[in-house]
Task: structure prediction
Amino acid sequence: QVQVTESGGGLVQAGDSLRLNCTPSRFTFHRANMGWFRRAPGEEREAVKAVACISPNGAINYYEDSVKGRFTISRDNIKKTLYLQMNNQKTEDTGIYHCAGTRGLGPNTCVADYAWGQGTQVTVSS
Result:
């Protein structure tokens, strides 16, 4: 069963911007902590690191250090959509981006817990 669908990825040059979208289904989105995660090809799901997390009402955000000041996570609970605005992209941002429900919002709790999707590819060239 597909529980989330990610979209918006593409191939861009360093310094460019993208906005990723995640549309969840079949769970209570407005009550869920949500996060974005970046996976390398062949990387096991258990090793995937968080990029950003957001509280159910959008009031509290967490960002991994390498994306602070460049990425913004947001959500629209009416549209049931999660966003990741990616500005001033770097080659290190390349990867497959997934969204998922998370346990919490800190460095140890912004962890994919459920509703992992197929992901959307982001490739940043120099």
Q: What stands out?
A: The mean pLDDT is 93.
